[in-house]
Fold this sequence. Notes:
Rossmann fold; five-stranded parallel β-sheet
Amino acid sequence: MGLRITLDSSVIVKWFKKGEEFEEEALKLRDDVLSGVVSPIISEWVYLEVIRALIKTGFPRVKVNEAYDTLRDMAEFGFIEVISVTSLLDKAKELMIELNLYASDAVNLSSALMSSTDILSEDKHLLRRPVRDFMREAGLKVLRLTDIYPGGTKA
């Protein structure tokens, strides 16, 4: 098993949308997932968050459906571990209150805490100092793509 890490949609969406900042690093991550170097964990909501992000940018409907199917296939074939949102609700509620997070961010952070893994994110809400401090106190980190793949180029 490779590096276990929780991913949020801000990272995964870069696998599908060209021209994103840190696209090179995100595609390297995807390759590492498919080769077993990285073993990602996501909450069920990530599927829908990726779809919403693609729709907001005007992605063609057929491509949105392909992205959804690709993520589901990756999970079905064991490349991605998916955590049920139901199992995260209580922790997510606590995080929403304590860290003033949106529901989706709290669910993603809960995935990391419940699986005892760092979280990889490019989401500005999860990169805030209070969130990073909270994770550090739990013995975990909020990482960016450039923390794992330093020296890449921006899109």
